[in-house]
Design goal:
Distance between the termini: 62 Å
Strand content: under 5%
Number of domains: 1
Helix content: over 70%
Number of helices: 19
Order of helices and strands: HHHHHHHHHHHHHHHHHHH
Number of strands: 0
Largest sheet: none
Shape: globular
Amino acid sequence: MPFIGRCNASHLFTKTYATPANRTDSPSSDRPMTEVRRSLRDRARSGALWIMFAHGGAIALRLVVSLALAHWLNPSMLGVMALAQTLLGGLSMFSDLGLRPYLVQSERGEDPEVLNTLWTLQVARGALVSVCTILIGVALMLGQQWAWVAQPSAYADPRLPWVFFLLSIVPAIGGFESTRTAQCQRRLDMGRLTQIGLLNHLINAIVMLALVYWSRSLWALPLAGIEGILVYTLLTHWRLPGTANQFSWNRSLLPEIRQFSRWILLSSMVGFFANNLDRLILGGFASAGDLGIYSIAASAIMLLSDGLARLLGDLGLPLFSEVYRERPGEMRAAHYKFRKPFDVVCCLAAGGIAASGSSIVGLMYDSRYAAAGPMLELLAWSLIAFRYRVTTQALLAMGDSRNQFHQSLATALAVASCGYAGARLGGLTGFVLGVSLSGLLSSSVTLIRAGQCELLSWWNELRFLPLVGVGYALGLLGAHLLDVLHHLLWLQGIR
């Protein structure tokens, strides 16, 4: 195995990453290698098509919901909800045990005893996160009453603690999600997994729009969140094939799980700050309205990045894991072959959105959200660094979960330092630009580790960068067309 001597993480999982020559229980040991490769390629293509279909539908639904919420609610409501979701996401990441990645990459990922033990851990974790969410709501309420929170920051909004109390139900329900989702992901069987995800998006969008239209109130948003997680959890048990879950406990599994999860937990904790430090900092010196406008711009970037992340998370890790288990010498070729479409999309989108962000916002939102346009153009540059997440997943499949922690730590430090420097030099605009460019600085950690593990090719790293300029030129053309369309709609009285 050419990578073991150079990438010192695979010794952590000797059993999991044993070569086919040393394995007697390999499910593909009795099949020709060409059949194994064809099967993997076909499953990867099928999974990619399902994920792209689902995310296309999800983008359409999220876009409709976003436009409706911006029309029916004011920016401060969106800002309060964005801050609450950020803090709740932090609690979830601070308790992330890496159970799904463990099941996806482990040879014991189909063992019912392992599945049920991990499901029991997951339920307990959900209950713990729920209790912590309530405690944060209480702390915020006391802080507001005792004037510990500065005015007029988003943390001082009196609605925020009550949103936390409602959202505390979400992790308790989500803890009961079936491990069948991990089994489907492990097998690259994305059909039913994608179907229930899209069905849940559709039901949740209908419920959320109905509640917001009826109430025109902030409280419709957390109530819709509770409905969404409840429906999805039920669907994972009713509509997916795999092992039915029941409470079980096998203490002998804990050392192996702990060995894999320790770096996942640390990287998730730091990853929370890496992914959300911008909102946490902005909520401390900006009003809920400014935070709501920023969330509009950030959500526009997330429409694309979340889709790529979904494709990467559901397909990348199981694909790289199977390649590394069966033929580790092909990891570098598999890495760049899988990453190629990410390079193309990220570079083109970064340039295109950087040139047309204001026109996009001007066409889709009313004048209250005009400031989100320049923010969107600045945040677009962050997409260039997104492609390196593929490399992180390849390293994780090789057993190097430590790199994920190092990358998350570097990202958090880069966001804090670049955001602070940008805010000192250019106020809110400088802060947004600093946050956007921080990913390019922190990605050096993953590139260095990839070079140590012989995954790196500088030609492949640089050859797609000219597409940023191509995307920018196309974006300028698109912005002109959008401005013309906006003007025509204004003349017709539609806008």
